[in-house]
Design a protein that fits this description.
Elements lengths: L2 E5 L3 E6 L6 E8 L6 E5 L5 E4 L14 E3 L2 E3 L3 H9 L5 E5 L12 H10 L1 E7 L2 E4 L3 E5 L2 E6 L5 E6 L9 E6 L2 H8 L5 E3 H9 L12 E3 L14 H14 L6 E2 L1 E5 L3 H13 L4 E4 L21
Bound molecules: zinc ion (ZN).
Length: about 300
């Protein structure tokens, strides 16, 4: 079995919300085994929202969580870092409705988690292992999960822009590949969309410090961190959105032209199609198909 993990100690940082433009302090705090990832609003008396698909609300260029009067926005980059670094249980405390955008990537959250340190817990982690394909198509957007012995992600994007006509990448995910190849990839937007977003009261905190801005003939930032930073960021996003399933995945996630609405709808569909997966307590499969070690009976979620 693999034990569940939390942080060794609490750690904080400050930043601004990408869409709200508001200052926010973020604290990551250790949590008990089985607690999962929970967002807490210190400015609302400590009300909490668990990071699960049941609480998805307010998809507007970012993924939001809502429960009763509590709302948390732009959770996806932080969730991506937490699940990719194997943090099962944590309280994310905020004094404002939006997770800080930092530099637009997940690298600052990786740094925070590494600074806090990791502590193993006595309970066993449960992985969601895909047994049969699960697919979703909406117009020209597609996403699917296929059986695989490892968590792999394939993403492809296609935009009507000379820089972004087509990018595709497949990555077998591990803590190391996430830290090196995915976490530093920044969010991106098109210059022609910026004004439209601002008119909607969005991207008020956006700048070249926290997003790649794509103009008609090139990027407005000095340089990209990777030639294909755009598709890498989509992989970062989909890992964060799929974290709302509540278990690490064992399967091959394949997405084409997706966004937060598609990703989170798919996370809900995965939980609904409960005959297509099982919960196991080890990512490593037994030698023989008939061996039962490491396989546990499915629980309802
Ligand atoms: Zn993103």
């Amino acid at each position: 079995m693999n034990p569940q993990r939390t942080l060794r100690r609490s750690i904080s940082c400050a930043g601004i919300g990408l869409h709200s433009g508001k200052k926010v302090t973020l604290s990551l705090r250790p949590a008990a085994a089985g607690a999962g990832i929970r967002f807490r609003r210190s400015d609302l008396g400590g009300l909490e929202v668990p990071a699960t698909v049941q609480h998805v609300g307010g998809i507007n260029y970012a993924t939001g969580l809502t429960r009763d009067a509590v709302h948390i926005d732009t959770v996806e980059h932080l969730l991506s870092a937490l699940v990719s670094l194997g943090i099962d249980n944590v309280v994310v405390e905020l004094n404002s409705p939006e997770v800080p955008i930092m530099d637009g990537s997940a690298a600052p959250f990786v740094y925070l988690i590494h600074e806090a340190g990791v502590k193993t817990q006595s309970a066993s982690r449960r992985y969601l292992k895909v047994l049969r394909p699960i697919t979703m198509t909406r117009g020209d957007k597609r996403i699917a999960l296929y059986p695989s012995d490892h968590f792999k992600v394939t993403y492809s994007i296609a935009f009507d822009h000379p820089l972004l006509r087509h990018q595709s990448r497949t990555i077998r995910m591990s803590e190391d590949t996430f830290v090196d190849d995915i976490a530093p990839a920044r969010t991106f937007t098109f210059l022609k969309e910026v004004e439209m977003l601002r008119q909607q009261g969005l991207a008020l905190g956006g700048s070249l410090e926290n997003a790649i801005v794509v103009g008609d003939t090139g990027i407005l930032n000095n340089a990209l961190r990777f030639d294909d930073e755009f598709v890498r960021h989509k992989i970062l996003d989909v890992i964060g959105d799929m974290a709302l399933v509540g278990h690490p995945l064992i399967g091959h996630l394949v997405a084409h032209r997706g966004g937060h609405a598609l990703h989170t709808a798919f996370a809900a569909q995965v939980l609904d199609e409960s005959e297509a997966w099982t919960l196991v307590d080890s990512p490593v499969q037994p030698e023989r198909a008939d061996a039962t070690a490491g396989v546990v009976v499915k629980e309802s979620l």
